[in-house]
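Meet today's protein:

…
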Amino acid sequence: MSDPVRAAGCVLWRHSPHGGGMEICLVHRPRYDDWSYPKGKLKAGETPLEAAVREVLEETGHHCVPGAVLPTAHYTAKGRPKEVSYWAAEATGGTFVPGDEVDRLAWLSPSATRNRLTRPGDRAQLDAFLSTPPTP
């Protein structure tokens, strides 16, 4: 069995600018036509947390402050095992610019996030995040 592909990402959240609670960020990747959390592969010498923060900035244009560790996702992608470490992270500002890797971004309520996620396995991170939500 080959070593897993290591990646990292965040359940990126913010206080809704319209009031009424929090919103969670999902990104759309045209290559896979899916909705997921911002995430990506680790670069050489990079820790999972460093990769998660970098990927959030690259894919969403937002800076963030990482918080609680969330469950690690384990699945097979392109025939190889993949391991994705996750953190909850509060967005602290930025601007999304569409690109080739991520063409759309959505800030959604927790229930809308659950419905929009393409991979059912990604709901584990949402459930863990919502079980100990940050204080508004």
